[in-house]
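--- STAGE predict ---
source: upstream dedup step, 1 unique chain passed
mode: sequence only
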Amino acid sequence: MSASDSTPASPSPDVGAPPASAADPLPSWRDGAAKQAILRFVRDTTTPGGRDFIAPADRIAIFDNDGTLWREDPRAELLFVAHLARARTEADPTLGAQSPYREFLADPRGYLQRGDTAALQLLHAVYGNTAVESFQDEARRFLAVARHPRSRAPLRDGIYQPMLELLGLLRAQGYQTWLCAGSTADFMRAFAADYYGIAPQQVIGSRLALRFRETAQGNAVWREPRVDSFNDKENKPANIALQIGKRPVFAAGNVGGAGDIAMLAYSQGRRGPSFQLLIDHDDAQRESAYTEPDGASLKAAAAHRWTVVSMRRDWERVFVAPSAPGRALAGEPMARPAAP
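--- STAGE serialize ---
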C-alpha cells in the first residue's frame, strides 16, 4: 500500500452475497489491519476536499482473477482447455494421434509442466480457428456445468465472498473495477459480468491474434492460431497502459506465480494515493496453502509496504454461498454469435 485508506457506503449486491449493512460493507472480512486499511483508503480517496481525494474519472481498481477473485487450484481455464481438447478429439478421432492432443490427453498435468512453448502449442491448436462469440458461448456452456475436480462443487462456488464485497464497495464509491489476468480475455468475458459485476469491456487478458471475416452466413471476428499477447508479469502493466491509458489507483493480486508483482508496482508508481493488496494463500483447511519457492511476492510486498491479506486470519468466510444463483451484475446481455 502506498497511501491512505478508507470507509464507504454499502455495495450493490453480488453473486451469493448476503446484503451488507451500511455499517459494515465488508462483513466477511475480520476486523484487522487489512480491512481497516481498505476502508480508510476508500474513505480518504472519495471524500471531497480531502488531501487524498481522487476524481471519479481516475478511480481505477484492477484485479487479477485466478487466486485473487476465485480459487486457482486448478485454474478454471485449464479445465476448459482439457474439455475442448477432448471434445475436439471426440468429433475428429484422428486428432487424438496428432501432437499436441496426443501428449496432452495422455498426461495433462505432465504436459503443462513442459513450459510455455508446450502450453502455447496447445492453445494454438485448441483455441485457434474459432469465432470469438462462438468460443464464448462454448465457455458459458462449460461453466454452467463444470465442477471442481476434487470438491465436485460448481466452479462458480469457488468465488471468494470477501472479494465480491470489496468489488461492490469500490463500485459503490465510484471506482471502475477491471480484471487483468493471465487467462484469455475471451474466456473471462464469458463470465465476468455474471460472476463479478465487471463489464466485458473492462477485462484485460491474454489474447489470440484476431481478424474480421465475411462469409455467406454473416461475419465474425476470427481467432487465429497464434497468441498475440500473454498477459502475465511485466506484460500486465503494458496491457493496462494500452487498454486503460492510466495507472490504476487500486490493484489486487495474489501469491502464487509472482505474476502480479509488476502490476502492483505499476499502480504504486502513480502520482498520488494508491493501494496495493496481495492475497496470501495460507489457509489449508478452508482453501489451499501454497506460496512461491523464492517468496518473491511476499518479499515485494514487504519491501514496498503493500497490504498482505491472510486468508486464514483476515477472512471470516472464504467462498460464496454454495450453488448461488447467477445473475448479470453489469453490462448488457452478450450478443448471440454470428456464423463464421
